[in-house]
Amino acid sequence: MEPSRPIQHPRRAAAAALVGTTIEWYDFFVYGTAAVLVFGQLFFPSADPVASLLAALATFAVGFLARPLGGFIFGHLGDRIGRKRTLIATLVLMGCATTGVGLLPTYATAGVWAPILLVALRLLQGVSVGGEWGGAVLIASEHAPIERRTWFASFAQLGSPLAVLLSMGAFRVATALSRSQFEAWGWRLPFLASVILLLVGFLIRLSVSESPEFARAETEKAVVRFPLELALRTAPGPILMTLCSFTIGTAGFYFTNTFLIAYATQSLSISRSLVLSCLVVVSVVQLFGQLGAALIAERIGDGRFLKWSASLAIVAPYPMFLLVETRAPLAIIVGVSLATLCASGFYAVIAGFVSKIFPTNIRYTAISVAYQVGGAIFGGLTPIIGVLLSSRFVGHWWPLAVFYSLLAALSLGGVAFLCRAGYDKVEQAGVEKPGATLQG
Q: What is the mean pLDDT of residues 11-22?
């Protein structure tokens, strides 16, 4: 007797992915904002403000360096024991790490132990978010019909702009305190709020059933013991090109939402509150832009949309910097929105695109490794490279714009390779067979 087909719940799964990634990215982003605004002086005091900022941003990068480890660990677990249980584990780990940051003593109180504990908790954040993204994308996309994967997978990507709204909003409230209050205890509030978000996300994720495709793979005895080994052996080319494809969606975000805070406040002397307020508005633009991007991509095809958005992202930083340099709030919002719409539109669609490249039994591992290794290289280092470029070329924004263009060009090259190899048409290629492999 043929086994019954697992029931799909695309809307419920998409909602759970959205809520979960919002919480995970909120926790990850509040650290980035705090690193730029306050961690330098509290955990890495120095006579040189640039040195303190670079030290704080280095701990921010530590989270990215830990993300591949999370991708390896939780990608393996997601392909071995299922998407649902793995996603619950990543959520709990992130919530505990973020709450811990909010309870840490500063350097003035604990001395060298303060930055050591900060780095340790940042590592746990990185491991957690390293395993989160792939599972969230797959729990949403694998519950959806193949022809609607781009749309439903994009809800996992919406967690990013929503998390920015939450984190920026939280810090906007915290920075309304006096400077002494903010540095003494106000910066802790956005981190401690993670406890409430954790409880909400935990309950929602418990209500979602396992991915139908993973359940089918278990029924058909297609789950493999070492998915990472199989992925690297059968699909090294697609994994490498997928890694390159992710670049602008990851690095572009941290360029505008982390480095740009430092650039605007230190190089252009724009107030912190104004920069944060502008980025909150940009996040609203990003939120609706991502939904529109997913709908357009469903009509014209993932691959075509991704190539167009990456091409536009190559030229976007030049008008962005011209407008930001005016220091006018509306100009800042318009300039950053131009760049953000290109990169975030790409980010919204790339999730559904890559979820169709790899077979079910190595999919969590393959996309997690590609995304997180790329994130460690390009996401974590982008703010640091930006600070170094701005300090080396004082008064000149063009080196920063060229750097951004190179990141977008790398994504364009990765997507063009995958499309040329036919992976944008993989829904007709029978890749859903659990025993299938890809040569690359």
A: 85
